[in-house]
Amino acid sequence: MSETLRNIWGGLAGGSGLDQLNLGLGVVGVGLMIKRSLAAFPVGLLAVSVQGVLFYQSHFPADAALQVFYFVLLAWGWRHWRRDRGAAPELPVTTLSWRARGVVVVAAGAATVLWALTVGRWMHAAMPWRDAFIAAFAGAAQLLQVRKNLENWPLWVVTNLVAVVSYWSAELAFTALLYAIYLVMAFAGWRAWAGAMKNPATTAHA
């Protein structure tokens, strides 16, 4: 247990300024998204920009490029939430049909296989299937989140759970802790957005 605590403390105290900023922006951004606040988008745009710089500095070009995808999605989502709400206080939370859910899962699964067999091999990843799964399903979750579909949260739950187990088994306690925080927040977001669907009179926090 002492080794685990040292790993966690090392991650908290030994990270660079950008690492600490990335952690803070990530937690704040998810918190604002749980509240369905438009402020989640500028925070999210800044967060993925910082993450992209960190990945680039660490020589992970594919992961850095993935942040560009997230940036575009967040920019579109910000516009979508503002423009398409009409005269309503906010864009309503919606759900997908079962067919659409199946399409999302199949597409994310196919992206996992493609990523593992191409990018994973190219970068000589230690755990290509884990990395591919997290990248593909996180991308799908992000897409559904900016569309304000409730199903984004179950996808985040699954993605974060896989990440926690994977990083813990790899003895990366600090990274596992970060994903555990996001896992708890994903459950909170799922509950909050489901509650907003049941009570449409409840408006988002500014």
Morphology? globular
Name the poorly predicted regions: none
Number of strands: 0
Largest pleated sheet: none
Q: Helical element count?
A: 9
Mean pLDDT level: 85
Our Rg estimate from Cα atoms comes to 17 Å
The sequence of SSEs as H and E is HHHHHHHHH
β-sheet strand percentage: under 5%
The overall number of domains is 1
Features:
mainly alpha, 9 helices, single chain, 206 residues, globular
Describe this entry's structure for a reader.
It is a single chain. This protein has helices spanning 2-14, 17-34, 40-57, 61-83, 98-117, 119-122, 128-146, 152-169, 173-198. The longest helix is centred in the C-terminal third of the chain and has 26 residues, at 173-198. 77% of the residues lie in helices and 0% in strands. The relative contact order is 0.13. Helix 2 (17-34) runs parallel beside helix 9 and helix 5 runs antiparallel to helix 7. It has 9 helices and no strands. The protein is mostly helical. The radius of gyration is 17 Å and the shape is globular.
